[in-house]
Amino acid sequence: MKRIIGLVSLLAVVCLAQPVLAIGEAKVMFILDGSGSMWGKLGGETKIAIAKDVMTGLAGELPGNVQAGLVVYGHRRKGDCSDIELLISPESRDRQGLVDQISLIQPKGKTPITDSLQMAADELAGTEKEASIILVSDGEETCQGDPCALVRTLRENGLNAVVHVVGFGVTTLEAEQLHCIADAGGGRYYSAENASQLRQALMDVRHEVEIKMPEIQPPPTLHKPTMQPVPELQPAPKLHRPSMHPVPKLQPAPKLHTPERHTMPEVQKSQQEQLTQHNEAAAENEEKENSKEMPVREPE
Fold first, then answer.
1. Residues 134 and 161 sit within 8 Å (Cβ to Cβ)
2. Which of the listed CATH numbers 3.50.50.60, 3.30.413.10, 3.40.50.410, 3.40.50.800 matches domain 2-209?
3. Contact assessment for residue 15 and residue 58, using Cβ atoms and an 8 Å cutoff
4. What is the pLDDT of residue 285?
5. Does residue 97 have a pLDDT over 80?
6. CA quadruple 14, 19, 23, 28: dihedral positive or negative?
7. From CA 17, how far away is CA 170, in angstroms rounded?
8. What's the pTM value of the predicted model, to 2 decimals?
């Protein structure tokens, strides 16, 4: 029972310690082992029962702004490496739907970890904020894949997700592969071998993985500028109206003096008379001169 309680606490810390799960539209994708080996027991409880308890309890603790998806493998058919199913989309906030899907899992088949990680990565492609993939498994890959190499390649190609791995009673060899997956995914590997290790793992999680949530700063207080009083409007100065002088009366225009006009005929007549008189005087003088020159004849 202590192992169950420790595992529940461990997974809760792994999920809730991630800053991406509490800020904005965070996404987490669970990959749950549904292979036949999950019927094995730890502390008197089957591994699948422990996983169901952890997952259902965790579903109710996820913040409302977290979108949680679920991929399960090996839960429908025996010996089928393609038995991988997306039960809940990573865009979902349906907590009850998540719980219902987990409760229906019945382990049967193999452990195709590599292809399950590929499916989870495909579902998270294009995620802007860093997402979390949490793989819960009781063993290593059994379908000839290389999950460690795949995760490394996915992150090199731009997968914006951290991969954490939780192991259930795995062997040393199995733990090496699961640890490699976590290392390649930039996350941590957590072992659930015994109560002491669970407690130590929880301390390690708090020290290595738990990142303090950035404090949400209150919006800065807007400085309200001091309003200067509006100066009183001064009345406009009175305009000096110049004195209007009366317009002087217009004087009548002076009468123009018209000179007397002499008639041309009178002028012409005076000149003609003078000429006539001159001619008469000249003729008279000529006649006198002639009379002086003529000799006086004696009468016969």
1. no
2. 3.40.50.410
3. yes
4. 79
5. yes
6. negative
7. 24
8. 0.62
- How many residues would you count in the chain? 300
Domain boundaries, the chain: 2-209
Structure tokens that stand for 207 in this block? 């020290």
Amino acid at 57: G
Tokens encoding 56: 């259902």
Distance between CA 199 and CA 103 in Å, rounded? Answer: 27
Q: State what percent of residues in the chain have pLDDT above 90.
A: 30
Strand order of the β-sheet with 186-191 is 84-88, 66-73, 26-33, 131-137, 161-167, 186-191
Q: Report the half-sphere exposure of 220 (CA within 13 A, side-chain side).
A: 3
Query: CA-CA distance, 31 to 187, in Å (whole number)?
Result: 15
Instruction: Assign 5 a pLDDT band (cuts: 50, 70, 90).
Output: low
> Six-digit token pair at 284?
């008279």
**Which amino acid is located at 4 in the chain?**
I
The three-state (H, E, C) secondary structure of the chain, written as one string: CHHHHHHHHHHHHHHHCCHHHCCCCEEEEEEEECEHHHHCEECCEEHHHHHHHHHHHHHHHCCCCEEEEEEEECCCCCCCCCCEEEEECCCCCCHHHHHHHHHCCCCCECCCHHHHHHHHHHHHCCCCCCEEEEEEECCCCCCCCCHHHHHHHHHHCCCCEEEEEEECCCCHHHHHHHHHHHHHCEEEEEECCCHHHHHHHHHHHHHHHCCCCCCCCCCCCCCCCCCCCCCCCCCCCCCCCCCCCCCCCCCCCCCCCCCCCCCHHHHHHHHHHHHHHHHHHHHHHHHHHHHHHCCCCCCC
Beta pairing partners, 165: 135, 189
* pLDDT of 6 higher than 60: no
